[in-house]
Amino acid sequence: MAFNGTVEVGNVMDALYAGTDFSSLNWAEQKWVAWYVWWGNPIIATGMLSFLMHESISGVLFLGLSSTPFQQWDCTKQVLWAHLTVELPAIWLFYPMSEFVGMKTYQVPFPSLSTMSWQIFFFMFFEDLFHWAAHRALHTPILYKYIHKIHHKYSAPFGLAAEYAHPAEVMILGMGTLGGSLFLCLFTEVHFISFFIWVIIKLFQAIDAHSGYDFPWSLQHILPFWSGAEHHDFHHMAFTNNYSTSFRWWDRIFGTDDKYLVYRERVQAAKAKALSKEDFLKAEQALMDEVLAEGLKAENEVEERSSRKVKVQ
């Protein structure tokens, strides 16, 4: 159903939910209906729901896991700029795109938990592969120098740094977040609630990966193929390796975790050799400093290649 303007409140129920058995709806579905009826326009309702969810999680949790006030303010300016120039337009354009490919938005009831579960996993799988490939591309000389370099400003990430990126990078990587759901619509029925839950999961994953904390409850301690903060921290230190976002398997399959694996072996060897916790922490810090020095060297080499290419052109 296409909507070009706000539906009058008295006609919303008939326009959106004619023939719906409201007595069969669960609590969440009833609140979903109430939200769309209150706004009276599915375009506005979907956009506001997405915007408020994203900004709430970004604002509270990203800032809560950030380090110094200066870092917070420096990052906040760039993040807000990306939100205004890329994410806000994308949020409001998502409804027309989703309607075009047949995604359900305001409709109830929701799909079953089993359907939502496998679809969310597909979104994660799709985004992780897309992110790995796009991230590798962003480390090529030209794209790195003019786009991705901003995200690598901090070798030790913190919460807000998850979205500290050039607007072009936000747009490129965002295609992976949106693309899986839109692509799946071509083959089966997808509801916006599945995509909505996936985006929440994705935000928490980004927070976890860039938090700088190896939380006891982080999934890498339960699922060995989950990336987590420690896996992504190495990428920011070493500049190379560990390009994936959620899962470790693409880096393992394509051999882009070779330096990381050597580093982990050296850390484990240092741990076995250390006579005390203090000795181990000193040895670990020395290894991290060595990786960081090599990463800065690799970054400089990429930028030099970019400069040479520009001169040749």
Description:
Residues 121-256 form the Fatty acid hydroxylase domain. Its main location: membrane. Pfam families: FA_hydroxylase. The chain has 313 residues and is mainly α. It has a domain at 111-311. The chain is 69% helix and 0% strand. It has helices at residues 9-17, 27-39, 42-64, 69-101, 113-138, 141-146, 167-184, 192-210, 228-238, 249-253, 258-273, 277-312. Helix 5 (113-138) runs antiparallel to helix 7.
Gyration radius over CA: 22 Å
Work out the helix count.
12
Mean pLDDT: 86
Low confidence ranges: 1-7
**Tertiary shape:** elongated
The share of residues in extended strands comes to under 5%
Estimate percent helicity.
55-70%
Identify the quaternary structure here: single chain
How can the largest sheet be summarized? none
Amino-to-carboxy terminus distance: 51 Å
* Helix and strand sequence: HHHHHHHHHHHH
Tell me the total number of β-strands.
0
Look at the helices and sheets and give the structural class: mainly alpha
